[in-house]
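Lab notebook page, bench 4
Experiment: in silico fold of construct C2
Operator: M.H.
Input chain length: 281 residues
Purpose: comparison with the prior construct
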Amino acid sequence: MLPPGQGESMKRAIQSGWSAWVVCSTLLACAAISSAEVPEAYPGSFWGNATHDFNNVEGWGTQGRLYQAIQWTTLPGDFALKTYAAMSWRLRSENQKFFNAYSPAIGVEVTRDFLTIGADYEWRDYPTLGTDKHNFFLYLIWYKEMDFFKPAEGKPSLLGIPVLGFPTTTWGHASQEFNNLEGTGTQGWISQGINWIRLPQNIILTTQATYHWRVRTKNQEFYNSHGPGLGVELGRNPLKFGVGYRWQRFPERKRTTGAWRIYLTWYLDWDLKGSTPPEKS
C-alpha cells in the first residue's frame, strides 16, 4: 500500500503524462497538416446495438458510438494518424447506477490493420448519478474477422452439408480513465459462427457460439460480468438481428444468470472524401 498522499501524487503524475501525450500527438497532427496538401481521408462510422435481456438484471439497453475523423497522414510502419470527434453512449433500464453514461469526446489515435490506440478528452455524463466528469481516457480497440476453417480448395461444408463459411470474429475495448468512477476496464466478445445459407434479399442465416466480458476496477457491482452464449442471427448489412441464450456471471454479486436475449446491431462506415475507408475503429 502506498503512503498517505502518494497515491494521489502518482495519479496526478500519470494524468499529466497522458495529457502531455495528447498534446504531443496533436502537434504531430498539425505538422502533418503543414506537410500535406490535403488530409488523406475523412473516415467515419456509426455502430450500436439495442438489446433486451430477460435476466432481471439489465432489461432493455442500448450502446453505441458515432465517430467522424480526419486522417491526416500515414506514418512509418503504416500507422494512420487521425484526430476525431465522437459521441458514445451506454444505457439500460435496470440497475442503471454507475452504468448509464453518455459522452461527447475529441481525440487523437493511430490505426494499423485491426488495432487502434488513442487518447481522448471526454465530457461524460452519468444521468442516474446527477454528475458529469471531464477527463482524459487512454484506450486500445480491436476488431478482427477471420475464417480459420476455410478449405484450401473447394467450397466449405460441415459433415458433408454445404455452408457459406465459418466466421470467427472478435471485438474489444480496453481503457484507462481518471475520473475515479470506472478505473481500468475492458469489454469485448469473441464469436465462432457458421453461415448456413443465403436467404432472399441477401439475408444470411448464422448460428454462433460467443464468449463476452465486461470488467473494470471501480464500481463493479452490476457492471462486471462474463460468460458464454449460443444464438441464431439474421444479417444483411448494415443490420443484424438475433436471438440467443446467454449465461452471465456477476462476480461481485456472486450470482450467475441464464436467460434469453434478443438484439439488433448495426454498423455503417464512410469516407467523406470518397475513397475506401480504413478498418473499423
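Observations: The helical segments are 6-35. The mean pLDDT is 86.
Next step: discuss at group meeting.
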